Amino acid sequence: MKEQVFGRDVRRRILYVIIISFFIVSFIQLFNMQVLQGSIYTVKANENSIKPVYLTAPRGILYDRNNNILVGNEPSFTLRITPDKYDTSLNRYLETILGLEKGYINGLLEKNRRMSPYVPIRIAKNVDYKVIAWYEENAEKLPGVDYVIETRRDYSFGVRGSHIFGYLREINKSQMDKMTGYSLGDEVGYAGIEKNYESVLRGEKGIRYLLVDSHQKTIGRYNSGKSDIAPIKGYDLILTLDKYTQQVAESLFTDKRGALVAIEPSTGEILAMVSSPMYDLENFSSMYFPKVWKELNEDEDKPLFNRATMSIYSPGSTFKMVPAIAGLEEGIITEKTRFFCNGGYYFGDRFFKCLHYHSNTDLVTSIEKSCNAYYYQLALKIGLDNWSKYAAKFGFGRKTGIDIGEETSGLLPTVQYYENAFGKGRWPKGILLSLGIGQGELSVTPLQLAQFTALLANYGKSAKPHLVKGILKNGKFRGIEPQYFDIGISRGSFDIVRHAMYLVVNGAGTATNIRLPDIKIAGKTGTAQNPHGDDHSIFIGFAPYENPKIAVAVVVENAGYGSTVAAPIARDVIKAYLNGHVHGDNKIIKNEIAAGVSKIEN
Amino acid sequence: MKIDYKLNDRFDIVFFVSVLLLILFGLAAIYSSTANHPNASQNFNKQLVFAIISLVIFFVIYTLPEQAFKNMAVPVYAFSLFLLIVVLIAGKTVYGAKSWLDFGPVGFQPSEFAKIGAILGISYWISYKERDINNIKDIAIAIGIGFLPALLILLEPDTGTSIIFIILTISIVFWSGISLFALFVVLSPLIVTFASLLGTIYFIASLFAVIIALFIFKRDLFNSIAIFMLNLGASFFFEYGFRLLKPHQQKRIETFINPYADPLGAGYNALQAKLAIGSGGIWGKGFMQGNQTQLRFIPEQWTDFIYCVIGEEFGFVGSIIVLLLFLMVFLRLLHFASISKDKFGSLVIIGTLTLYFSHFAINIGMNLGITPVIGIPLPFLSYGGSSLLVNMILAGIVMSIYKNRKLHT
């Protein structure tokens, strides 16, 4: 090798030269910037600068299964104060005009004391147009006060859906640490679909570049606004709800406490869901959130609680199909097996009551007439293990996995459960009798009941209950595939039980009062004992009998018999969905949305 | 073997004090830019804790025997690669790059740790049993050791850090005694590839330059053609690989080459940085008095634009003091590398020098508006625990090598 291998000293000099030359360049640049042109930069720095202001994107719109709007957006006025220029002696004056409590503005200013005094603070959202007109006239007397147009949720489409949609709130500190891309004052979904689909609905922020001086005072738009980035609206969601059915269901619960869930049996799509009492989502979008929240939270009827997924009830007689199917599947009974009812059943020295004297009862009659004595004896025959095994197959005792976060699993007692409570082999067999008729420790949510009904309707095949059918991305629908499942129970057992449920309404059963001439409804009534007051009225049902399109579970609190209150509600909802359908025109009203957005941007 | 036990013979005070002062300057600037900030007011305390931990670790490493670094070179390098692969699979995405590993409250950037791995790894390979650095196979492996982590980091994608690894590798190879011709063979494909990104004309011009250089070196025809083909191949290979990247990754590389295509993104910060520094004047506006800093014109100023805080609040005088402290650090490192008789030690010191200097030059260049905006922290000053810790670990290794230099004759 004869190429020039130079020694360490040469290499050291090369590195030395590189380092020194960079320092000389930096030195010259610093001298130039800070000493020679320092004054020019100082003037520039004091004069103007570009400041990006982030613009919140309108949230995605919620549509029903037929593309009718359920929750939209509308522009609204927000009044703000910039503390730097604001005169606090105006507090009382502003508070009176805006209808705010005394000291409210002062409290807000105090809360934001550590923030830059040049950044505006929102003092009132959704301000009336008249107040804005008044402000326009008096603007010069109100230094440091201004208003902006923002979007707010529009709930004026005739559906309340408080527990389904959920609400928005200003983001708090701990959420800001967890989620990226949010800043103070941004709204974020706090419950329901708004929370669970936050990332889909929220869209992308835009940026407006303003020219500001060194005190952040705006002196114009950078590049006449040509460099601004428009916010991108969030993706819309197509829900599984049927707007008309939901409206009917909500109206049927006026003055009642309870819940209703309607599911399309073959797909698990939730057609309607009500938890009553409801609350107005409208109230949540004001600045008085804490006050509204406190009132609702202290309400005895617990309106904030989603009874459809969070409340637990004894299913009562609506549960009887479970031991019936367990007995048939395990070969313990056949359709023809009879148990005797003399108005009840003696177990040991205790008499467990039935509502009537049913004499020698077979399986179909036991469901049709809701004979308790039959199920006392059946439960003793199938035993607790089989009882809880089949109840678990129908989804009791665990969450359904619905796509809104708030859900409870209820309680499905097992042998293990009683052994923990009473000791091994020491639990009283009398417990089984109560469980046989859906009482005792067993507790279920209305959503679980609806899923159970859907499984009865569709021969054990359904999909996880869900509220979102798909996402509308730039006008293109992208469906979310439901999670189908089959609980693996023979068709023969279903045929017997379903036939009995048909007779409940269309034979000589307990709910003949809801029989319809044109729709064949199958169902089961239930009356759940309630230690805290009057019995709860329960009904589950599906229709049309041969080819079910809708499965409904209804619970009305403290309303007595299932047939008198819950069953007619179920009937009306079924009727609304199957007959009284006011479908949308299957076109998304794009112009309307676009108009809303452009109004907001300007 | 006689060892002189005078303190300054075992511990370089000038180097250590310069580093310490730089850390203090950094803390002051972080305090000024984050005090009263709604989200970042805890950053000063965090950085202070990291500074103390780093100093303790520096002294612990300083006490280690010399052989320790050679022994840990291979495991540390292998572990770095492992972490870089893990972060690509399970990393947390921050600012569009998958570069963080999350351990509950503590986050960690494997690319920072890999800097130590790469320096030790390459140095160990080259110094192992007096390898012939002008043997093509040995050079290729040495470069491969450095470029492998660079490639993994490019996939995150973190172009800026990836480039640091390339500079690092070339610098260590350069110091190892490679011939000028061999260096040309190594560097020319990189230059040609970079030129191909700038445009066709640059690409062709760079190919001509390669041909002219080949004539000057007067190698035989076969070798010359082989090297030319290597150049051509590298750029086409890169072009092909570029197309395999996802659109957003391509866009990142494009904006890296031409940041002014995005004047309101990267360009916005560059403009604000110049305004802040320029308006500082000779004496500065005073601690916590800079209106550009206090009004937060530059987002997250305490990370990559920390030098602006110094420039605005401490003026020309403060800026120059910081530059001189860095100069002191670099010249001491160059001196240590030159006097170290152990090849491994000397290469590790040069690696550390290159790491510090490349970060410094890219960051200061960006703050002063000389070079494009590349998000690289300023060593010892920028907010960030991983970066400070790694820099201090390397300082500890360097000081330890300096301490033991007389064990070699």
From TrEMBL, chain A:
One GO cellular component, as annotated: plasma membrane
Membrane topology recorded in Swiss-Prot or TrEMBL: Single-pass membrane protein
Gene Ontology MF term list: penicillin binding; peptidoglycan L,D-transpeptidase activity; serine-type D-Ala-D-Ala carboxypeptidase activity
Alphabetized InterPro entries for the sequence: Beta-lactam/transpept, Beta-lactam/transpept-like, PBP_dimer, PBP_dimer_sf, PCN-bd_Tpept, Penicillin-binding_protein_2
This protein's UniProt keywords: Carboxypeptidase, Cell cycle, Cell division, Cell inner membrane, Cell membrane, Cell shape, Cell wall biogenesis/degradation, Hydrolase, Membrane, Peptidoglycan synthesis, Protease, Transmembrane, Transmembrane helix
Protein name, per record: Cell division protein
Annotated localization: Cell membrane; Membrane
Domain Penicillin-binding protein transpeptidase stretches: 258-575
Organism: Melioribacter roseus (strain DSM 23840 / JCM 17771 / VKM B-2668 / P3M-2)
Span of the signal peptide: none
Residue ranges occupied by any Penicillin-binding protein dimerisation domain in the UniProt entry: 56-220
GO biological process per UniProt: cell division; cell wall organization; peptidoglycan biosynthetic process; proteolysis; regulation of cell shape
Top-rank taxon: Bacteria
Residue intervals passing through the bilayer: 14-31
Family matches, as Pfam families: PBP_dimer, Transpeptidase
From TrEMBL, chain B:
Keyword Cell wall biogenesis/degradation carried by entry: yes
Keywords from the named record: Cell membrane, Cell shape, Cell wall biogenesis/degradation, Glycosyltransferase, Membrane, Peptidoglycan synthesis, Transferase, Transmembrane, Transmembrane helix
GO biological process terms, semicolon-separated: cell division; cell wall organization; peptidoglycan biosynthetic process; regulation of cell shape
A GO cellular component annotation in the UniProt record: cell division site
Spans through the membrane: 12-32, 44-64, 76-95, 139-155, 162-185, 191-217, 224-242, 314-334, 346-368, 380-402
Compartment(s) where it occurs, according to its Swiss-Prot or TrEMBL record: Membrane
PROSITE patterns in UniProt: FTSW_RODA_SPOVE
One Gene Ontology MF term: glycosyltransferase activity
Pfam family, one: FTSW_RODA_SPOVE
Superkingdom per UniProt: Bacteria
Membrane topology listed for this record: Multi-pass membrane protein
Protein name as catalogued: Cell wall polymerase
Organism name: Melioribacter roseus (strain DSM 23840 / JCM 17771 / VKM B-2668 / P3M-2)
Lineage, highest ranks first: Bacteria, Pseudomonadati, Ignavibacteriota, Ignavibacteria, Ignavibacteriales
